Amino acid sequence: MLRHRLLFGPILIVLLLAVAWADQFLQERTGRAALLLFPLMALVDILAARELTALFRARKITTSFRVNTLAVVLGLIASSLTVREAGPISGVAVVCTAAGIVYCTSLLFYSRGQNVDGVVSASAATLLVFTYIGLLGGFIVMLRKEYSAWLLIAVVLTIKSCDIGAFAFGKLFGRHKLIPWLSPGKTWEGLFGGVLFSGLVGAGMTVVLRSIPEQPAFTIWQGVLAGLIFGFLGQAGDLAASLLKRDAGVKDYSHTLPGFGGVLDVLDSPLLVVPVAYWLLKLTEIDATGKIVEAAKSSGWW
Are 152 and 140 within 8 A, CB to CB? Predict the structure, then answer.
């Protein structure tokens, strides 16, 4: 497993950087962001939906991959719309409409043939797919649309660095189990080491972003704090995914990625953390705007 991680880990990072560069290149040529990321994210979400569908079936919950695919695509589209793209239409209305379509489609599909057995569990499972993969996955696209590909890469690398740090510190110093009944391999030492490493990477990403023109300017300490938050929440996202896997009695979602497991085994932490990163960035903008307003008021211009 370790050998596969050491081999495929750098390959995944290189692919991620290549996608970021290509997506940024397309934006500079066309003026539109996420032209490459959106279809790629749709494909990743569909693969993740396939893994969750198999997980549900392992628990005797018979859901449809076709309905779950519709759910993740609608969730992705609904939550990745920016204010400029939606225009005067409320984003809340878009998301609620998408949820209503998924709900009604689930009830109709799972009750076909006048059979009501398992309709509640199957519909609930599809709504989980809609929320967990579709809506949360849409934040990755929305973050890219409103910021540069390089900022998104910095966020993702900071999140995933906690996994690397936790694995290394856990192997070297792990003595005390974190939650043995849920994730026997995780230790408190690994958690603290991973979060600290994520904080260091967050600081490093801040320095890197400063060297790229037209990127948001953050202080080193803001990078450290963001890294600590991302690392901790990323581990929480990993444990949340473990709940689903343990309930189904499986270790990994699939064997799509050697050494890592399935697509969701890699995506579990970003799905939870990227929405937090998005709102932290928005709060930073609000704070900056507030300072500008106060300065304008004090000068008598306001």
Answer: yes
pLDDT tens digits, one per residue of 281-291: 988 876 554 44
Q: How far apart are CA 178 and CA 162, in angstroms?
A: 15
pLDDT digits (tens, 9 = 90+) for 23-69: 999 999 999 999 999 999 999 999 999 999 999 999 999 999 999 99
Rounded to two decimals, what is the model's pTM?
0.89
In angstroms, the CA 252 to CA 106 distance is: 27
Cβ atoms of 50 and 65 closer than 8 Å? yes
Distance (Å, rounded) from C-alpha 24 to C-alpha 68?
Answer: 30
Per DSSP, helices labelled H in the chain are 2-30, 37-58, 65-80, 83-86, 91-110, 119-129, 136-146, 149-173, 188-210, 220-248, 263-299
* Closest by CA position to 137, among listed 223, 209, 59, 47: 47
41, burial (CB in 10 Å: exposed 0-12, middle 13-18, buried 19+): buried
* 3-state SS, residue 32: coil
